[in-house]
Amino acid sequence: MKRAIVTGASGFIGLHLVRELMCHDYEVLAVVHSERGAERIMGLHSANVRPVICDIPDFEELYEAAYGEYDVFFHMAWRGVASDENKDIAVQMDNVANAVRAVEAAKQLKCRRFLGAGSIHEAECMRELEQSGPVGNFVNYYKCSKLAAHYYCKLRASEIGMDFLWPRLTNTYGEGERSGRLISGIIQKLLRGESPALTDGSQLYNFIYVTDAAKAYRLIAEKGTGYRSYTLGSEEVRPLKEYLQQVGQIIAPSVELGFGKFAFKGIHLEREDLYSGDFFADTGFRTDVSFSEGIRKTRDYLLKR
Question: What pLDDT does 270 receive?
Answer without folding.
Answer: 94
